[in-house]
Design brief:
Layout: H1 2-19, H2 38-43, E1 63-73, H3 81-95, H4 122-139, E2 150-154, H5 157-173, E3 182-186, H6 206-227, H7 235-252, H8 258-264, H9 268-280, H10 295-306, H11 318-321, E4 333-338, H12 340-350, H13 372-375, E5 381-389, E6 392-399, E7 402-403, E8 417-418, H14 419-425, H15 427-430, H16 436-439
Parallel strand pairs: 1-4, 2-3, 2-4
Antiparallel strand pairs: 1-5, 5-6, 6-7, 6-8
Helix pairs in contact: 3-7, 4-5, 6-7, 6-9, 7-8
The structure holds 2-acetamido-2-deoxy-beta-D-glucopyranose (NAG) (9 copies).
Length: about 450
């Protein structure tokens, strides 16, 4: 009985989401239909559906928003090709077990892996559209049919699809009176400020992630191997099987059977810390050549905020950025679409989510501020609002709707600092990474 009520509620949940034209329903929590608690979904970190990290609050009454800059991660996707291969290896080993002695694994007998690769999933498209609707709703006073948002995307298909779903959502929310288009797609094979593709000498987070894996995973691996004699899973296999909980759930919009394993193993905290280490040491503060990869975007942001030509000698494409067709300076709303690793590089070059001490690969600090679930879930976004506060040009910055303290430019308690102080604070970017960019190409 309880089950059938739940089942019919879920059915209504999906039917409602799919059938009712979205302009007529209030923005909803898309992830509420997945039959996995919000806390567990958020522990998926970079594989979590979008969640705001705070409730949006308007700037102080004395300030008027006069320009907005959005950089947003693509929506929920299938595993990348590399991850898909590792997952399939782990699944094959699990399926090769002679039998399953643990009821937790009984479903594997009939299980087949069937996810796609790399591309956006339906939930990711929906959340991207919702982000466009929200941007229109929040900033409609800045745009008109003659003053459209200016939209760029990094060249991979899922990022382009995200940008197009965002513009479609924006148009829908305006009842098609304001129809932005994706104007610039930047090739990921060339100079690209929206992808971390230009620093061959940068290291990766494998050492730190493997140290953490060796600490948290062995009891989980032992439990799985005990229940699947002959599977002979490694700790890496265990991690890849855990990722099936988020990947299958966001792809099918139904709870994955692997979420029973994820929850039974109480993987939430360990998985989230794995993500924090991965990003912190991937392109964040813990990677010597991580932050420099975010410099070009910050110089573009400064150009737009100050209506000055771009001054940068790192990742920018000067052909694109010197033309008003591909890099206008007279717009009120800019939206760029990118990837999590690139956004982490940008945040770290800027000084957001800084840590007084680096993350320890074996001992999570419960008070850490570098929490991937609040930084780059799917569809994560940074928004810089330029404000006129009684004649003083100012800025405030939000990541996933959480106002950032901006101590580095002397912000007040509402997170507002002057535009001059913000630009001043970005010396690392303005100085082209203070020598780090050249190190990207050192042999
Ligand atoms: C499962 O397989 C192992 C290895 O083949 C065997 O030793 C064990 O008896 C089996 N257990 C059950 C419950 O069938
Ligand atoms: C696997 O599928 C078969 C055929 O549908 C079914 O009889 C069996 O109960 C299933 N096994 C498990 C463990 O779900
Ligand atoms: C921005 O400048 C271009 C010329 O460079 C012009 O065509 C366009 O109308 C301007 N847009 C706005 C919103 O002022
Ligand atoms: C939205 O994303 C979906 C899934 O990737 C894609 O099939 C669709 O073409 C996108 N919509 C637009 C308007 O680009
Ligand atoms: C810069 O952008 C132009 C126009 O899209 C493109 O033709 C060129 O290949 C790009 N150059 C680099 C180095 O990325
Ligand atoms: C289990 O895998 C390890 C390598 O991961 C290998 O050294 C070992 O021989 C395997 N054991 C069995 C019983 O297949
Ligand atoms: C930007 O550079 C172009 C030439 O590339 C120049 O015509 C224009 O005046 C410059 N704009 C600003 C705001 O400096
Ligand atoms: C691409 O970036 C490199 C490295 O900063 C730079 O030397 C080159 O001029 C850039 N190309 C373009 C078209 O901006
Ligand atoms: C981050 O914090 C560390 C330690 O306090 C400091 O040395 C570093 O300059 C900060 N980085 C940025 C970009 O603010």
């Amino acid at each position: 009985m309880a089950f059938s009520i739940l089942a019919s509620l879920l059915f209504v949940c999906y039917a409602y989401a799919r059938a009712v034209p979205r302009a007529h329903i209030p923005l909803r929590d898309t992830s509420a239909c997945l039959d996995v608690t919000r806390d567990v979904q958020q522990s998926w970190s970079m594989y979590s559906p979008y969640f705001p990290a705070a409730t949006y609050v308007a700037p102080p009454a004395s300030c008027q928003i006069n320009q907005v800059h959005i950089i947003q991660r693509h929506g929920a996707r299938f595993p990348t090709s590399g991850a898909a291969k590792r997952i399939q290896t782990a699944v094959a080993k699990l399926k090769a077990a002679s039998n399953y002695t643990d009821p937790l694994l009984a479903f594997v007998t009939n299980y087949t892996y069937s996810l796609g690769q790399d591309s956006l999933v339906e939930l990711g498209a929906t959340q991207s559209s919702e982000a466009g609707q929200e941007a229109f709703t929040r900033y409609s006073s800045l745009v008109s049919a003659d003053e459209l948002p200016f939209v760029r995307a990094s060249g991979s298909d899922r990022v382009v699809a995200t940008a197009n779903n965002w513009t479609a959502g924006f148009a829908l929310a305006s009842s098609n009176s304001i129809t932005p288009v994706l104007s610039v797609i930047i090739s990921e094979a060339g100079n690209d400020t929206l992808d971390d593709n230009m620093c061959p000498a940068a290291g990766d987070s494998d050492p730190q992630v493997n140290q953490w894996l060796a600490q948290f995973a062995p009891p989980m691996t032992a439990r799985l191997n005990a229940g699947a004699p002959g599977a002979n899973l490694t700790d890496t296999d265990t991690y890849n099987l855990l990722t099936l909980c988020p990947f299958e759930t966001v792809a099918t919009e139904r709870r994955s059977e692997f979420c029973d394993i994820y929850e039974e193993l109480q993987a939430e905290d360990a998985f989230a810390y794995n993500a924090d280490l991965d990003k912190f040491y991937g392109t964040g503060y813990g990677q010597p050549l991580g932050p420099v990869q975010g410099v070009g975007y910050i110089n573009e942001l400064i150009a737009r905020l100050t209506a000055q030509n771009v001054s940068d000698h790192t990742q920018t494409n000067s052909t694109l950025d010197s033309s008003p067709e591909t890099f206008p300076l007279n717009r009120t709303l800019y939206a760029d679409f990118s990837h999590d690793n690139q956004m982490v590089a940008i945040f770290s070059a800027m000084g957001l989510f800084n840590q007084s001490a680096p993350l320890d690969p074996t001992t999570p600090d419960p008070a850490r501020t570098f929490l991937v679930k609040k930084i780059v879930p799917f569809s994560a976004r940074m928004v810089v609002e330029r404000l006129d506060c009684g004649g003083a040009q100012s800025v405030r910055l939000l990541v996933n709707d959480a106002v950032q303290p901006l101590a580095f430019c002397g912000a007040d308690t509402s997170g507002v600092c002057t535009l001059d102080a913000f630009v001043e604070s970005q010396a690392y970017a303005r100085n082209d990474g203070e020598g780090d960019f050249e190190k990207c190409f050192a042999t």
